[in-house]
Every structure is written in structure tokens, then in C-alpha cells.
Amino acid sequence: MSDEGKENIDEEEIFEALDRFKESIISGTKLYFDVSLFEGIIDYLLDEGDIETSELAAAQAIHIHPNSVPLQVKYAQVLLNKGQALEALSNLKNVEKIEDKNPDIHLLKGTAYTIEGDIKSAVKAFNMAIKFAIDDLDDIYYHIGTSFVHAGEIDLAVKYFKRGHKVNPKNESLLYELGFFYDQLGHSEISVTYYNKYLDIDPFNNTVWYNLGITLNKIQQFEKAIEAYDFALALNEKLHQAVFNKANTYANMGKFEDAITYYKEYLEGDPNNDEAYCYIGECYLNLYDNLQALAHYQKAIRINQDNDNAWYGSGLIMWLEKRYQEGVAFIKKAIKINAEISDYWFSLSKIYMDDKLPEKAIEAVEEALILEPDNTEIWIYYASEMHEADDNDEAINILRRGLKANKNCASIGYLLAAYLLEEERNKEAYRAFERALKIDYSLHNELFTHYPKASENKKIAQLIIKHKPLSS
Q: What is the pLDDT of residues 153-176, one digit of tens each?
């Protein structure tokens, strides 16, 4: 609504006009309202999500006030809410010919361009809105940032949120968005800074305390995360997810008994949450209480047969108990539900290997590598098992494949060098060792762990001296 309109009418007038307008639609009559009241009616209808009625109001308003720029702008806003960005742009370009310095026109043009995916034109339009803005510049930056968020352009959104914050450091909406989206971009430390700035202004916002707890947990500031969740709960005792997250934080700290306590507290309000039972099972697993772990995984399964993590956890316990066939059955069930998790296949391979079924183990580990070829642990495990089975040629082939997929993994290179030396394929071994030294010299002792006799090899010693960093 225009500033002039805001000054001349109050909410009560708008509500009264809105009621009369809705009655007129039912009766089929047309009522006269001034421009400001029509703006208010359209705004409230848009806020209610009643796009169809807002379009009727906009059309009637323009029919009565055909030369009103604010109402033309409102109509464009209605079109945008309908998803008709091109129609809105056409309307706005016509209005721009009348009033080309109206920031609202350029703001809506920018929003329409973001919907159409024309980011370059959106930036140009938004910058025009900023140029012609007289006041509320921080709110304009907020609107621009929000438009880019909806377009999936988070980096651009943060750029404009930051500009808005510079204009008005006390704008809570901008502080919240900066805290939230810096966290989404993986800059959690910066996120914490903005959340704390928000809380300096309003320490009673439970949502911000809750979000701060999530971010602090990510950067492993666990004690502070728990404190943030406690503040959130003190302000809103119904924020049960904070209890759940608090339990997660205790689990991340390795305080599994405390984690179990809070998971159980959470379950008092949500007794059928299978994920909570699953996490309790994981805590008991870490406490080496396999019986309790299995009981809670099975409880999760009874609640939700499709909880693949619970089936997987049950399979791990069967493996630990050397009940291999049951372990295989449980993990296969997890894979049937979700076959895209490499850990499931990797663990299945390990169980088959322990159960002396190497062919099935190889099939499973190959599936794991298809899903996660950059997981160097799997490559090293696979090669080690082939080495244990006295199949050095296959172990070497596996490591070469692993290096092809992970060119910067020194550990694979050192293991490859060890196996090549063992086979007296010295030239290949020296090349592999030198390549690994160039990647990460600090890990070169891994060669001697895998093949102690390498310490007697003069060429290996020469290569170590050759590649020793000057600072070492």
C-alpha cells in the first residue's frame, strides 16, 4: 500500500471495507472504494491466500480508478501471486511509462524476472528500485533478498541481505535471514554471529535460540548448543524438537546416557517417533549394550516397517553377535528399502567376509564403490581383504582403480607401494611411493606399517630425503 494510503486509513476501516466487498461479490453488486481502501482490500486478500478474490478486487479497482498507478502495481502483484510473471511484466512495463521512478514497479519487475529465471534482468530491475527508494531501503533489500531465495539464488540473496543490514543493523528480519542462510551455505561461524546480533535486540525469540542451537551443534560447540536449546525451551516449552536436538547434541558429545534420557523425554510427547527409538538404539550400541540397542531398533521397526536405519542397526548387532545369517537378512531388508546408501553394502560385504562367503562379499563391496567411489576406506578395506586372501594381483588392481577415482589419496598410494614391493615390482612401487609423497609426505610411515621391510630399501630412503619438505 502507498505511504499516503497508510497515513489516511486504519485497519478497522480496511476490515470493514473488506467485509463489504465480500458481501458485494455474493450479491453481485459493485461498490465504490477509494484507492487506499482498494489497496488494503487487495493486500489482505493476498495475505489470506485468496488469489481469486484479490484478482476480482484488483480488476474492479482498476475499472473504477483506471489511472491509478498504485492499483496497477497491485494488479501486477496479484498476477505474480498467480504465477503469471510474463503478464505481470507486461503490465509493469506499461505502468513504468507513466511513473518510471516508482521503486515498487522495479521491485515487482525484479521479482517477475526471478520467477522467469532471468537473473541478470532481475538484478538490473532491483538496482533501479534501490536507486529510486526514498526510505525503507532496508526493507527493499529484504524484499530483493527474499526474491532471490525463492529463485534458489542464495548467494545473491545473502549479498542483498548484507546490504540491508548495513543500512539498518537493527532490522531483525535481515539478521534472521543472514543467520539462517549463512548456515545453509556452510558458513556456520558467521551464522552464529548474526543470530547473536538478533538476540542482542530480542532475546525472547525461541525460534532464533533453536536455530542457533542447530548451528552451534554443527560447529561442535556442543555446550553452547545445549544452552541455546535450553533457552528455546524456557521460552516455549512446547518446542519439543529442541528436546530431540538436545539429545542429538549429547550423543555427538559421546554422552550417550544423557542422550538417551532426552530422547525418552521427547518420546513422552511423540511416543510413535521411530527415529527417536532408532537413535536410542544407536546410543545403546555405543554403550556396548547390544540387547537394549536391538530392543529399541526393533521398536522403531514395529512403528515403521520402512525405517531402513533400524533394520541396518539390527543387522550390525547380529554381526557383532556373530549371527551372520540374521545380520545379512536385516541389512538386506535395509537395502531393499534404500539401496542408495553405500554403508549398507559395505557392512553387508564385511558380514559376508566374516561368514567366509568371499564371492558375495565382493559383489556387495563393488556395489558400495559404485555408490561412493570417493570413499577411500572402502578401497583400502577391499584391497586388504584380497591381500589377506593371498591375491596380491587383485589387491594391486583394486588400489589402482581406487587411485584413479581418488587421485589425491596418499594412503591408497602408500598401500599400493607396499604391495608392489612385496611382489618385488620395485620400479612400479617407487613410482607409486613417490606419487604418494608428493600428495602427502607426512603419511609416508604408512608404507612401513604395511610393509616393514621397506625400511631397509635404499631407494625408498632416497625418495623420502628427496621429497622431505624444507620445514620438516
A: 999 999 999 999 999 999 999 999
